[in-house]
Design goal:
Length: about 240
């Protein structure tokens, strides 16, 4: 049984369909990259999986349980957005601890989990810093830690490094891959960077106009790209 099962999911915002009858199974521990041009429905699909958007039609199940109508906090998912949305009036520790406090964990357990999450993202010792004092990359690391500390079964990353420079982006995506492998956490990674998808993914979902154009492993996509979007990029690499 797949960890995540998406069946004929659609989302209309009144005009056209942002997501149009998408179906997808994601296995336990798999890293799937969603790739596609701007406006192809990647964020909307991810937001529906995370519970931030209600589908117009279709169902989403996680570990066999229908979560289609559940709010984000009732789902075993954690999401990191392109703009990290950290709380600037709180320090790093408080940002990461916030969700654990809502869950009513005792203080010692919170401290231990926050330290663990900080170490995982390479920010051990940064708990006392204000988030505004951190670099862009460090802020996205905190956002990642804030998600991971709640121990989600599925990690949803929506272009978390898009605003960072190329070098940092490459480093961070390697770190994400490393963390993902170590934790064995099922992950959906939205990107419009083809190089990112080819480097990271177990499987790639290529989207266009709200639909899936191709779902395959990176080597298959590389050798037999169905879409101009990917083919154009691969052509430019050779
Ligand atoms: P991507 O993440 O691939 O760039 P999006 O999922 O953000 O694509 O957008 C898909 C389509 O849905 C776009 O045409 C976008 O304008 C539209 N859309 C997304 N969110 C909304 C919204 N809240 N209201 C109206 N239209 C939206
Ligand atoms: Mg988007």
């Amino acid at each position: 049984m797949a960890r995540l099962t998406i069946k004929d999911i659609s989302k209309s915002f009144g005009t056209g369909f942002a997501v149009d009858s998408v179906s997808l199974d994601v296995e336990d521990g798999e890293l799937v990259c969603l790739l596609g041009p701007s406006g192809s429905g990647k964020s909307t699909l991810l937001r529906m999986i995370g519970g931030f958007e209600t589908p117009t039609a279709g169902t989403i199940s996680i570990d066999g349980r229908d979560v289609t109508r559940l709010p984000p906090e009732k789902r075993p998912t954690g999401m990191v957005f392109q703009s990290h949305a950290l709380w600037t009036h709180m320090n790093v520790f408080q940002n990461i601890a916030f969700g654990l406090k809502l869950r009513g964990l005792p203080r010692a357990a919170i401290a231990e989990k926050v330290e663990g999450a900080l170490a995982l993202v390479g920010l051990a010792g940064y708990g006392g810093r204000m988030t505004a004092q951190l670099s862009g990359g460090q802020q996205q690391r905190v956002a990642l830690a804030r998600s991971l500390v709640l121990e989600p079964k599925i990690l949803l990353l929506d272009e978390p490094f898009a605003s960072l420079d190329q070098h940092l982006r490459e480093r961070l995506r390697e770190e994400v891959k490393d963390i993902q492998t170590r934790l064995g956490i099922t992950t959906l990674f939205v990107t419009h960077g083809q190089d990112e998808a080819l480097a990271l993914a177990d499987r790639i979902v290529v989207m266009r106009d709200g639909r899936t154009e191709q779902i395959a492993g990176p080597s298959e996509i590389y050798r037999h790209p169905k879409t101009e979007f990917v083919a154009g990029f691969i052509g430019s690499m050779n």
